[in-house]
Write a structure and sequence with these properties.
By secondary structure, the chain is an alpha/beta fold. It has ten helices and 16 strands. The structure holds ligand AHZ. GO terms for molecular function: cysteine-dependent adenosine diphosphate thiazole synthase activity; iron ion binding.
């Protein structure tokens, strides 16, 4: 038997039978020693489906026109989202992350060790987000990289104006002609082309599976150094002849690499800001390995550049 509840949802009348525990316990303490009579509030499977799909498709609708798209939810992308979400609650910010788990390479410090090192002055970012650390003089140590990523992620996800679409890959960039005197074929970036990552991984063994799109006047790419998904946007800029070539990431030099990444965080072509390790591929900067201050502060700078571009 199917009935309609006050919200217009179809509910099964049978649900009214087993509601013994419903509405009884208001706190966890009230549940103590009540497990024999315990039941969850009733549910019908379609309610669960609708609770998820209604929100997801509303989000797809809302963010089809975004103010800013951030590609990649690694340490740099999340730091960028944190700064932007906090500074501008009026902007619609979509984060597109290819992996199921956001966080990129920031769940561990280095060589699968737990602790995460950040050189000063990146401690200022940790203070702002509220991540505790040990102060070792010129650098600080978060006891587990996952504590940094989980705290940052929780703050970013709580912003009402930020939506994370994970398990979703950016497959291409949307462009519009923006000819200049030096380059009549110049373009500006006007959004991203997306697909479920599992679909994106099967273009060579399935027939055409067309993508979806998000329009945005500003895209911030933080896809990390080259790899199966990494350095995505800057490689595409080369193949669409908007960059002559990539410099290629150089060997590890912690002393110079971190300064270089922060200093070079910038708008590379109109409408596309690049931050984090993706930048090392553009300019041929060194890698820094397991020290993450540059990722946080590149995110801070990417957000600052983005706000300046938007206000232009
Ligand atoms: O899944 C990727 C990861 O979570 C995601 N990503 C890459 N390509 C994508 C695409 N669409 C959607 N086409 C995509 N998402 O981007 C995220 C990049 O995170 P990351 O942690 O690899 O990059 P980051 O620049 O934020 O941090 C780099 C961390 C490193 S690597 C390194 C070294 O080797 O020297 N040192 C540091 C600190």
């Amino acid at each position: 038997p199917v009935a309609t509840n006050g919200n217009g949802l179809n509910v099964n009348k049978d649900l009214s039978v087993k509601t013994a525990g419903r509405g009884q316990a208001k706190t966890l303490a009230e549940m103590e020693n009540q497990w024999e009579s315990f039941t969850f509030a009733p549910i019908r499977e379609s309610q669960v489906s609708r609770a998820m799909t209604r929100r997801y498709f509303a989000d797809l609708d809302t963010y089809a026109e975004s103010d800013i798209v951030i590609i990649g939810a690694g340490s740099c992308g999340l730091s960028t989202a944190y700064m932007l979400g906090k500074a501008r609650p009026d902007l619609k910010i979509a984060i597109i992350e290819a992996g199921v788990a956001p966080g990129g390479g920031a769940w561990l410090g280095g060589q699968l060790f737990s602790a995460m090192v950040m050189r000063k002055p990146a401690d200022t970012f940790l203070n702002d987000v509220g991540v505790p650390y040990d102060d070792e003089g010129d650098f600080v140590v978060v006891k587990h990289a996952a504590l940094f990523t989980a705290t940052l992620l929780a703050k970013v996800l709580a912003f009402p104006n930020v939506k994370l679409f994970n398990a979703t890959a950016v497959e291409d960039l949307i462009t519009r002609p923006a000819p200049t005197q030096q380059d009549p074929k110049a373009v500006r970036i006007a959004g991203v082309v997306t697909n479920w990552t599992l679909v994106a991984m099967h273009h060579d063994d399935q027939s055409c599976m067309d993508p979806n799109t998000i329009n945005a006047p500003l895209v911030i790419s933080t896809t990390g150094h080259d790899g199966p998904f990494g350095a995505f946007s800057v490689k595409r800029l080369v193949s669409m002849q908007q960059l002559p070539a990539l410099g290629g990431m150089r060997g590890l030099d912690m002393r110079s690499a971190e300064d270089a990444i922060v200093k070079r965080t910038r708008e590379i072509v109109p409408g596309l800001i690049v931050g984090g390790m993706e930048l090392s591929e553009v300019d041929g900067a060194n890698r820094m390995g397991p020290t993450f201050g540059a990722m946080a502060l590149s995110g801070v700078k990417a957000a600052e550049v983005a706000l300046a571009v938007i206000e232009e």
